[in-house]
User: What shape does this take?
Amino acid sequence: MNIQWFPGHMTKAIRMMEDNLRLVDALIYVIDARAVYSCNNPLFDKLLQGKKVLYVFNKCDLVEKSDLDKWCKKFAEEGKPYVKAIGTSGDCSQIVAGLKQVVADKIEKYAKKGASVSVRAMVVGVPNSGKSTIINSMIKKAKAVTGDRPGVTRGKQWLSVDNVDFLDTPGTLWGKFEDQTVAHHLAYIGSIRDDILDEGDLCFDFLDEMKEKCPENIKARYGLESLPEETIEIFDAIALSRGFKMKGNQIDYTRTAKMIIDEFRKGKLGKIMLENAKI
Assistant: This one.
């Protein structure tokens, strides 16, 4: 399945970000830890030029620590400041602390003059990476609009906590997917709207990848003693294990496909990192 999706509001979002760059001291770049490479959007490259950046590995509870540590090492070697976070935990104070460390020179400059200063940061990331959830955790109030689907935040929002002003921005995808692996990984984590995808094809592609990457996770979750060679047979076995049938004893493909992708997104298939760091 070939995936391409870049709705018009994302073009407007990029322009809005560029227009507001002069207002901020730094960027907070939120990345879903399951797909670190795919969450690095080339369209953000212009935004990063000349700006200090704090990278946030979000949803790190959905991957193995040993796998994430490799990405952390890679970012450290490249001089990219980062913190790890679980946006849904309700505590993302490490992000505020990390941001203040990134812009410490500005804070110290004003401190020498006996003055305090507010830090302004723009929060960017692909859709559904958890930007608004992280901001809500930092301010302890649900002021930013959140949702479990891409495209919830459509306009800019300024929110403040502990002398830091955050500019929440709409999630924005790559302009064009030259690499369909990137497109598929973003689709798996929910960055691309499900209603523009064929969920059956997406699920088959997902199982194709997972049967090589983590077959034990699939067997354990669905109580399968072994995995058949053909992906369609794996799919059928999963459907039968859950009793997903329609009239005439036919497998309910739509329900099964939605369930498998949903269980991956919620971490029910275990801690799975889609992209390993190359060190």
User: Anything to note?
Assistant: Residues 199-213 form the longest helix (15 residues). The CA atoms of residues 200 and 257 lie 5 Å apart. The beta strands are 26-32, 52-58, 82-84, 119-124, 157-161, 164-168. Residues 144-154 have pLDDT under 50 and may be disordered.
